[in-house]
Write a structure and sequence with these properties.
The complex is a heterodimer of chains A (327) and B (339). Helix content of chain A is 76%, strand content 0%. Chain A is built from 16 helices and no strands. In chain A, helix 5 packs parallel to helix 15. The longest helix of chain A is centred in the middle third of the chain and has 38 residues, at 181-218. The radius of gyration of chain A is 24 Å and the shape is globular. In chain B, strands 1-2 form a two-stranded antiparallel sheet. Chain B is elongated. With 339 residues, chain B is mainly alpha-helical. In chain B, a hairpin with a 2-residue loop joins strand 1 (307-309) and strand 2. In chain B, 40% of the residues are buried. In chain B, 65% of the residues lie in helices and 2% in strands. Classes of the chains: A mainly alpha (327), B mainly alpha (339).
């Protein structure tokens, strides 16, 4: 089918571009992993230096093309190299430690924000001109605020002035990560403020989009018919109008899940949260190229995966996409 | 314009008249702008004014320090917004910093919109293989995670002044607009007036510039405003992360220095507050402007209060009321309709 072939081509090309950009970054940028290691450990022997060069893939022997194919092969085998900063940990090990933090916190916050924003959008459109609809421009103020500024204010009010919540780190010092109640409750307690800031800054976008599509849907004849039949208001609102209006939001949601890993960057720096964003930032500031490449690859591929899921969901949720391939 | 204007108008001698009509129509459009958009336009205008005159009306040199000082001082008569920990005047930093923030936003908006218009219209109008290729390019750029990529690229650029930053931001910011413009071009391409222009022997470029683009002005304006917002928020975030020229003043660098000098922990709200609030106001003016542009294009989105019709409050979401309309006031007709 033309539609599916085209989408699959897109994913293959996009994945290839992401991997190639990843390959190119350390080769285009000034600075080099081995020099960074040298600066850290000046007493390195020439023989171990060569071993490092081989490991980090810098000054590798052979042409750029053969390096490229070696890199492609390594990526396909899940070998992302060794971190400079946390030598000799493998990049995949570091990622396995930090990725869950980001996924759980930002993922949960994104879901809450999506559900809340969509529901408020439905209500704003249904009770058009009502209180919710009129105060909506106020929500956009939160959306237009630089995220970290809002986070600083929230920290100042809730953590510094009132002392209600802790800030910084993912859990209390002195606890070690594990599946026990004291650790999990501490981690949950520490994640309240970051999650709150993510929800209030991103909710307005969902709300606005849902309201605008919903308003167009409400004017459709089938909604009128449903109301004329005397169906309960909630049924008309949710099953007739909202169910059709939610498609663009649903597509946006799947996409935004892909950006969860990327969007966490600023949040994790402000809250010193031990996730992927902070690791990426540390990798940039310390020239940790293998780490940088690894995180970048994970981010790009997760966005791609989310797009693919969005496509599949859309394909089943909206029958029109199935016929559109024909024209 | 020929497709939009009345058929009687485009006479060779009537060019001046047509131009006057365009100006008049534009004036009318400003007055017709929905309230939200008017508020947005006024706030944005104020920011542009400050960007132009800010450095001249700043009471102090924003970088001048007071050597003996070690703590930020609260607002006073001599320093209306207080000072930083080293005695720099916050108000002066704000007035000077507005310029680079606004310039960077507008510059990025201009470059990115230009890119998205060129790519969007070519892809939509030419169709076929070029459409496939350009759409693929846009989609690939769309999925590249912008902020991490920007941190990586700008972190290693030797010069992170306004122009290099604007170019990198545009390079990652054009696909959003390009997709929308492509979709609109695709739909316009099939309209009768484009077919008529093609039949009369107009070249592809003439059709794109004079038939299709004028019909996409609203869309292009909205995409421009959206890109400016993206550029301002992203550049402020980048400066906050320290990935920017920290020797110049902008909202982002002000926040960077405030954060790195522990302004929040010191409780110096006059230091980190103003740049954040100003950036938020600037952002909100753009959001409001885009609201208005949306409503101009789609009148259904306008917020309308419930209307009172025949003692009953009627909302647009309710079924069309089968009751007397306020417009229909003809005598006997009234009795036939159940109230």
């Amino acid at each position: 089918m033309w539609f599916i072939t085209r989408r699959l081509t897109f994913y293959v090309v996009a994945a290839w571009v992401a991997i190639t950009v990843n390959f190119a970054i350390p080769r285009v940028m000034p600075g080099n992993a081995v020099n960074t290691m040298l600066a850290k450990f000046p007493q390195l022997q020439p023989s171990s230096l060569r071993a490092l060069e081989a490991q980090f893939g810098t000054h590798a022997h052979g042409s750029l093309l053969s390096q490229y194919f070696t890199y492609l092969g390594n990526v396909l085998h899940g070998d992302l190299g060794v971190s400079v900063n946390q030598y000799p940990s493998k990049v995949t090990t570091v990622l396995a430690q930090t990725l869950p933090w980001t996924l759980i916190l930002v993922g949960t916050a994104t879901i809450i924000s999506f559900v809340l924003g969509t529901l408020l959008g439905i209500l704003a459109a249904w009770r058009r001109g009502g209180v919710l609809d009129r105060i909506m421009p106020g929500f956009t103020f939160l959306q237009a605020t630089p995220y970290f500024f809002l986070a600083l204010v929230v920290i100042q009010v809730f953590a510094v002035s009132w002392g209600l919540f802790p800030f910084g780190q993912g859990y209390s010092l002195g606890l070690s990560p594990g599946w026990n109640w004291s650790f999990i409750s501490s981690a949950a307690y520490h994640s309240v403020l970051p999650a709150f800031t993510i929800v209030i800054t991103s909710m307005a976008g969902w709300m606005l989009q849902m309201r605008n599509v919903m308003i167009t849907t409400i004017a459709e004849d089938y909604v009128l018919v449903a109301q004329a039949k005397g169906l309960p208001t909630r049924r008309v609102m949710m099953t007739y109008a909202a169910r059709n209006a939610i498609l663009p939001n649903l597509a946006g949601f799947a996409l935004s899940l892909g950006f969860v890993v990327a969007g966490a960057l600023v949040m994790e720096i402000v809250f010193s949260y031990p996730g992927v964003g902070l690791t990426l930032y540390n990798a940039v500031t310390s020239d940790d190229f293998p780490m940088l490449q690894g995180i970048f690859l994970v981010i790009s591929l997760s966005v791609l995966l989310a797009c693919l899921i969005a496509d599949i969901v859309y394909f089943f949720a909206d029958p029109r996409t199935r016929t559109r391939g024909a024209d | 314009m020929s497709a939009l204007a009345a058929p009687a108008e485009p006479l060779p001698g009537g060019a001046e008249q047509a131009a006057a009509a365009v100006v008049a129509r534009r004036g009318a459009m400003l007055r017709r702008l929905p309230g939200k958009a008017r508020v947005g336009a006024v706030i944005l205008g104020l920011f542009i004014l400050v960007a132009i005159i800010g450095p001249w009306i700043a009471p102090y040199d924003p970088s001048a320090t007071i050597p003996s000082q070690a703590l930020p001082t609260a607002p006073s008569a001599s320093h209306l917004l207080g000072t930083t920990a080293t005695g720099q005047d916050v108000l002066s930093q704000l007035l000077v910093g507005t310029r680079s923030t606004v310039v960077l936003g507008l510059l990025t908006g201009l470059i990115a919109t230009l890119l998205s218009v060129v790519i969007g219209t070519s892809a939509g109008f030419l169709g076929g293989l070029s459409d496939e290729g350009l759409s693929l390019l846009a989609n690939v750029f769309l999925i590249l995670p912008a902020l991490p990529l920007l941190v990586v690229i700008l972190g290693y650029l030797p010069n992170t002044g306004e122009l290099p930053t604007a170019i990198v931001l545009s390079a990652l910011g054009w696909p959003w607009g390009a997709r929308v413009i492509r979709a609109q071009t695709l739909s316009l391409r099939g309209r009768d007036f484009v077919a008529a222009a093609r039949e009369s022997g107009e070249s592809n470029w003439r059709i794109i510039f004079f038939e299709i683009l004028p019909n996409e002005i609203g869309l292009i304006a909205a995409s421009f405003v959206g890109t400016v917002l993206y550029a301002i928020l992203t550049s402020v975030a980048l400066a906050f992360l320290g990935v920017s020229d920290l020797s110049t003043w902008s909202y982002g660098t002000m926040l960077y220095w405030a954060q790195s000098s522990n302004a929040v922990q010191l409780g110096a709200w006059w230091w980190y507050g103003p740049p954040g609030v100003f950036a938020a106001l600037l952002g909100m003016s753009l959001v409001l402007l885009n609201f208005g542009l949306d409503e101009l294009g789609n009148p259904r989105l306008r917020t309308a209060g419930p209307r009172k019709i025949s003692r009953r409050s009627w909302r647009p979401a309710d079924p069309t009321p089968v009751i007397r309309d306020d417009v229909v006031t003809m005598g006997d007709h009234r009795k036939d309709v159940p109230a």
